[in-house]
Amino acid sequence: QVQLVESGGGVVQPGRSLRLSCAASGFPLRDYGMHWVRQAPGKGLEWVALISYDGTNISFGDSVKGRFTISRDNAKNTLWLQMDSLRAEDTALYYCARGGRGLDSWGQGTLVTVSS
Amino acid sequence: DIQMTQSPSTLSASVGDRVTITCRASESFSKWVAWYQQKPGKAPHLLIYKASNLESGVPSRFSGSGSGTEFTLTISSLQPDDFATYYCQQYNTYPWTFGQGTKVEIK
Question: What is the DSSP string of chain B?
Answer without folding.
Answer: ---EEEE-SEEEE-TT--EEEEEEEEEEESS-EEEEEE-TTS--EEEEETTTEEPTT--TTEEEEEEEEEEEEEESS--GGG-SEEEEEE-SSSSPEE---EEEEE-
